[in-house]
Amino acid sequence: MTVKAEFGEVELPTDPQAALGMYTTDVDILITLGYPFAKSQPIRGNSDYTTFPSYSPQAELAGVTPFANYPDFNYEKILAAQPDFILNGLGYGKKTDERLKEIGATYTVNAFDGRNWREHVKETADALGRTAQYDAWYAKYQAKVAEVKAAIGDKATNAVVAPVSSWDGKVNSSCYTGLECQTFEELGLTIFAPAKEKNGDGIELSGENLGKLKPITYAFMTVGAGDSGQKEFQTTKDTLGKNKLWTALPFVADDHIVPDEMEMTYGSPSAAMAFLDVVQKSFTS
C-alpha cells in the first residue's frame, strides 16, 4: 500500500510479519496496533535502561531480544533483526529515514514535534489502516479513566497537581511532554497554572524563587531506570532539601512527591495506562 509519510510517499507491506519500532514508543505503538514483531527490538541505551520500560506489555515482548538504539542508532542490529516493516517516530532526520529504507519498508513520522503524542498515534493508525485497533485501545483507555476517576472520588477536591523536575540548578514545572497534564485534565484534576504557560513550557525557577511552587499539593517527578535512576532521584531530593523554601512547600512537607518512570512522559498507549495507575495510587494509598 502507498502511504504518505514524513518525507513523502512510501510503499509498505499490507501484512508485515516482522515489524520493528525505532524507539520504545514505536515498539509500544506496534503492540497496540497488533503487528507481529521482528525477533529483536530497540530500547533506550542510556539512563540505565537494559530492557524495555517496566510498563511495557510483557506477554507481547516475551522472547523478544532488546538492543540499545538511542541516543546512538544501531543500524547493524536493526539489519540483523530482519524487519519487513519499520515504524520510525524519530522523524526529525531525513538521513535516518533514508538509511532505514535501505533495510526495510519504513514509515517515518516526527512524533516529537511538540504536538500531543496521542494525535501522532491516531494519525499513524489511520495511515497504516489500523484505525480499529487504535479505537479499541482508546475505548479501554477511556474506561480506565472513568475507573480511576471513581476511585479517586473526592480525595482530590482541593488538590493542585503538576509535573516538577530539577535540572542544572533550576526547578521546572511544565506540561511540555503532554502525557502527564493531559491525564490530569481527563481526570478532572486542577493543574498548577504556571505549568501550562508558554504553550506548556511552564516555568523555570532558581532557588530563591521556589516559594512560587507553594500552590502545588502533589508533585510528579520522573525517575530513571534501575539503581542509578533511584540514586539520582534521591540525590536530587537531598540537594533540594538543603533549600528551606523547598522543604516548606506543601508537597514536600506532606510527602506528596510522586515518582513516575521517565519513559512514560514521552507518551505511548501503555505509558498512558500506566500513568493512570500512578495517579490513582498517589491519591488512594
Automatic annotation (TrEMBL):
GO terms for biological process: iron coordination entity transport. Keywords: Signal, Transport. Its main location: other. It holds the Pfam family Peripla_BP_2. GO terms for cellular component: outer membrane-bounded periplasmic space. It is found in: Cell envelope. SUPFAM superfamilies: Helical backbone' metal receptor. It comes from the Bacteria. Residues 18-285 form the Fe/B12 periplasmic-binding domain. Coiled coil: none annotated. Belongs to the bacterial solute-binding protein 8 family. This is Iron complex transport system substrate-binding protein. It comes from Micropruina glycogenica.
